[in-house]
């Protein structure tokens, strides 16, 4: 049995942090940020009492409402995040409590920017096995909680947000999630990480003063790997499924840098109308970028039955992957 997306949802904090705002905080400028990354603004969840579970709960509520089902029908909740509210309980359990999905089990998945693709394929396995009928898969991040707003190399890139989908059995075997090719290469771990707060460097005055609780990225190294792997995986999914550029309705790529997205689209031979882009408005929301694109296309009524969608991502780990979905 195949798993299909039957509802989508998104939830973004109201507050906008624009490039102009950043100009007042650090030595940067709007032109550099837009031309090097494609980002104009991002959303920030400023309220210190709200975190990733708040955003993901908003997504779950919207999905339930759109699908018109009670929370009691949900069998499983998977939240892909690298900014959980806390180590435990999981953010997924917090969402489960908030929406009162008392028949669901729930867990978080750590796949960084590829977390949503990892989670989508994981959720689909439970549908395929026939053991679950309704699985919520959400990608959500409060990236602002791990960003050093004095570091111009990273603080211009990231934003907060969440989005997700409901997976259910597809109408037939030719619809839904048709192929998933997921990869990891742990040798990339030295280029994108957050050292502090785990069991290796638990929080101390020293870890705080050394800035170990902030995201670190070697932008150039990650860029090189991302450009290659995103384009390669897109080509791998196309070839593996006998798809030409004409067959593809939308490429839905991770939104880390518009230059990486354009290189991927070029390799696939896709015109810009077929490439989902919202990095200009939200920046890099890590696990939330791909579902945010899906939810926006869905809201705009642009996804039609039989549309072929290619999802691709690349992130810390390294992790990367591609998924081929036929909309139903
Ligand atoms: O989502 C997970 C995966 N992540 C990615 O895929 C991100 C991959 N990396 C990137 O997207 C890019 O490497 C960045 C956007 C992070 C950086 O772009 P870049 O073209 O690689 O710039 P760079 O790091 O080579 O820096 C070029 C110049 C440097 O100045 P010098 O040394 O040439 O004088 C930087 O100091 O730009 C400077 N710079 C800035 N200038 C203004 C770096 N950050 C900024 C800034 N504003 N915010």
Automatic annotation (TrEMBL):
Top EC class of this enzyme: transferase
Cellular compartments annotated: Cytoplasm
Pathway assigned to this chain's UniProt record: Lipid metabolism; fatty acid biosynthesis
Entry's Gene Ontology cellular component terms: cytoplasm
Domain Beta-ketoacyl-[acyl-carrier-protein] synthase III N-terminal, first and last residues per copy: 107-186
Domain of life: Bacteria
Keyword DNA-binding: no
Domain named Beta-ketoacyl-[acyl-carrier-protein] synthase III C-terminal: residues: 239-327
Reactions this protein catalyses: malonyl-[ACP] + acetyl-CoA + H(+) = 3-oxobutanoyl-[ACP] + CO2 + CoA
Gene Ontology MF annotations: 3-oxoacyl-[acyl-carrier-protein] synthase activity; beta-ketoacyl-acyl-carrier-protein synthase III activity
CDD domains: KAS_III (cd00830)
Key words, A-Z: Acyltransferase, Cytoplasm, Fatty acid biosynthesis, Fatty acid metabolism, Lipid biosynthesis, Lipid metabolism, Multifunctional enzyme, Transferase
Segments of this protein annotated with the region ACP-binding: 255-259
Enzyme nomenclature, EC number: 2.3.1.180
Subunit structure: Homodimer.
Family: Belongs to the thiolase-like superfamily. FabH family.
Function: Catalyzes the condensation reaction of fatty acid synthesis by the addition to an acyl acceptor of two carbons from malonyl-ACP. Catalyzes the first condensation reaction which initiates fatty acid synthesis and may therefore play a role in governing the total rate of fatty acid production. Possesses both acetoacetyl-ACP synthase and acetyl transacylase activities. Its substrate specificity determines the biosynthesis of branched-chain and/or straight-chain of fatty acids.
Record's comment describing the protein's domains: The last Arg residue of the ACP-binding site is essential for the weak association between ACP/AcpP and FabH.
UniProt name for this protein: Beta-ketoacyl-[acyl-carrier-protein] synthase III
């Amino acid at each position: 049995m195949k798993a299909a997306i039957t509802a989508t949802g998104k939830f973004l904090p109201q507050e906008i942090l624009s490039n102009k705002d950043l100009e007042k905080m650090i030595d940067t400028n709007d032109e550099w940020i837009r031309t090097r990354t494609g980002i104009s603004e991002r959303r920030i969840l400023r309220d210190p009492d709200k975190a990733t579970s708040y955003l993901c709960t908003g997504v779950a509520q919207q999905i339930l409402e759109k699908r018109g089902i009670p929370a009691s029908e949900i069998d499983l909740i998977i939240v892909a995040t690298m900014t959980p509210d806390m180590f435990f309980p999981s953010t997924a359990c917090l969402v489960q409590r908030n929406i009162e999905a008392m028949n669901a089990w729930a867990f978080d998945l750590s796949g960084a920017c590829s977390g949503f693709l990892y989670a989508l394929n994981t959720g689909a396995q439970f549908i395929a096995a026939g053991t679950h009928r309704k699985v919520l898969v959400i990608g959500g991040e409060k990236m602002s909680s791990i960003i050093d707003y004095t570091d111009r190399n990273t603080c211009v890139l990231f934003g907060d947000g969440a989005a997700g989908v409901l997976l259910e059995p597809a109408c037939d075997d030719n619809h839904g999630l048709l192929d998933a090719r997921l990869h990891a290469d742990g040798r990339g771990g030295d280029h994108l990480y957050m050292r502090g707060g785990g069991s290796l460097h638990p929080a101390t005055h020293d870890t705080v003063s050394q800035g170990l609780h902030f995201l670190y990225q070697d932008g150039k190294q990650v860029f090189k790997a991302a450009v290659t792997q995103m384009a390669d995986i897109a080509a791998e999914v196309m070839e593996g499924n006998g798809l030409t550029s004409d067959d593809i309705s939308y490429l839905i790529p991770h939104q880390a840098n518009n230059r990486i997205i354009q290189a991927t689209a070029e390799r696939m031979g896709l015109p810009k109308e077929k490439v989902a882009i919202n990095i200009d408005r939200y920046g890099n929301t890590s696990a939330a970028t791909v579902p945010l694109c899906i939810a926006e296309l869905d809201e705009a009524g642009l996804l039609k039955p039989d549309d072929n969608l290619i999802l691709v991502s690349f992130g810390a780990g390294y992790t990367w992957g591609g998924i081929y979905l036929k909309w139903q």
